[in-house]
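Q: Here's a chain of 84 amino acids. Please give me its 3D structure as C-alpha cells.
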Amino acid sequence: MILDFDIPTKEIERRKQVIRDIWNYKLDNIDHIPIQLIPIPNPKGYTLKERYTDKKKQLEVQVEKIKVLFDHRAILFLIFPALS
C-alpha cells in the first residue's frame, strides 16, 4: 500500500530547518525550546506490542496520528507559529 500525502519536499525541508534552528537557538524570537506533546490515537485499542510488530497496525496508527496532527494544525499554529 502506498500513501501519498502530497506534501511538497521544499516545505518538509523548511520545517526541518526551523526545528534545527530552534534547537540551536538561531531564531531571534525564541528564548526557550518549545516542547510539543502529541497524543497517539489508538481507536482500535492495539497494544504496544501489536503496534510495533504488525506493520499494517503500525501504519493504521501512524495514519491516524497524521490525521490528528493536520486536524489540529490551527491549534499548533497558535502555540508554535514558527513551526507552521
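Q: Can you summarize the key feature?
A: Residues 77-81 have pLDDT under 50 and may be disordered.
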